[in-house]
Each structure stands twice: as structure tokens, then as C-alpha cells.
Amino acid sequence: MQLSLIGAILAGVRNAAQKQNVGARGIFTSSGRIIALYGAGGAAYQFTRDASANLRGIDDTYNEALGGFMAGAMAGVYRRSIPYMVTAGSLFGIVMAAFTYSGGFTGYKRDRDEGLDEAAMKQKAMEEYRRPIQEIIDELGEGRGIMGPGYAERRRQRLLENYGIDVGPATQGSRA
Q1: How far apart are the two ends of the chain, measured CA to CA in Å?
Q2: How far apart, in whole angstroms, are the C-alpha atoms of residue 43 and residue 37?
Q3: What keywords does the record list, in alphabetical order (predicted)?
């Protein structure tokens, strides 16, 4: 569906760039094959990808390669050339397989734990890479939500010395 829309946009651009004025329907009459090519390529890709994943029982890179080959083969059908069909199919298949194998736009994720969801992955990363509180206090200092052991008592003393305000002793429920 999305590729049909992209094909329609490209057909509209091609229609606008033509020298003769064919009107608004020229998108479909003179450039309609582009829309059909993109729609058929997208449908062939998705159908082949899903069918191979279903028949093989596994969703991996080979499904993308098969789907990419069929989408590229649609370009060969458009050009009415078997060598072009095989070449374009092979190139599309290789590109789609490489794109999926490398993780696409999200990056390579083969090292992820399969049993963990996103929140558990974040919690695991936070536990693995958490720095000790004393190291953070030494680097940033106290305050702004960073409180070391005994912070409440030191704050009480500082307020008493600087402003003469006694905020009371630190209670058991304080954050220190």
C-alpha cells in the first residue's frame, strides 16, 4: 500500500515533468505503469517474505532475501527482460538481506537477551553500568538530588551556621 502511494507520487512527478500537457489523469494514463510496478513490487516482497517465514517456520534474513528477489523481479517484468529480472532480483535480495542482517535502522541486536522486554533490558543495563555513589558525589558534589550518607545532618549544620535556622534533627525517614 505504501509503495503504491510512493509510485503514485513518482508518477505525478513524471507527469508534471513531461513536455506535453496530458492533464491530471496523465498520472494514471501515461505513468500508471509506475504505480503498478511499485504496488506489485511491494506486494510481491511482503507476500514472499511472509509466505517463506510461514513455510519455513522461522523469521530470519533468508525471508528478506527471497522477498527482495521477488520485488526486484517485478522491476524485470516491468522492463520485459529476463536478464534484468534476475539481476534486479538478486540486487534487491542482497540489499534487503544485508539491511535486515545488520539490524536495519535500529542497529545490530543479535546480542540481546530473548527473554527480556525493553524495561528489563534498561534495568539490566542500569545495574551493569551503575557507578558508586561516592564516585558521583566526588565528581559532582552534593545537592540537586545527589545525597551521600549523613547529608541531612550536614545540611542541618550548614543552614544553622549560615542562616540561623534550625530544621530539626534528621529523622529516620529522611533520604540520607
Answers
A1: 58
A2: 10
A3: Membrane, Mitochondrion, Mitochondrion inner membrane, Transmembrane, Transmembrane helix
At 57-110, the pLDDT tens digits run 888 889 999 999 999 998 888 888 899 889 989 999 999 899 888 877 766 555
User: Rounded distance, CA 8 to CA 21, Å?
Assistant: 18
State whether 24 and 94 are in the same domain.
Answer: yes
Say which residue the cell 513455510 belongs to. 55
In the 8-state DSSP scheme, what is residue 143?
B
Q: What is the pTM assigned to this prediction?
A: 0.53
**Contact yes or no for 70/89 (Cβ under 8 A):** yes
- Give the span between the Cα atoms of 127 and 130, in whole angstroms: 5
Using CA of residue 85, residue 88, residue 90, residue 96, what is the dihedral sign? negative
Grid coordinates representing 63 are: 525471508
Cell of 110: 543479535
Question: Residue 156 burial by CB count (10 A; 0-12/13-18/19+): exposed, middle or buried?
Answer: middle
91 and 24 together in one domain: yes
Both 72 and 9 in a single domain?
Answer: yes
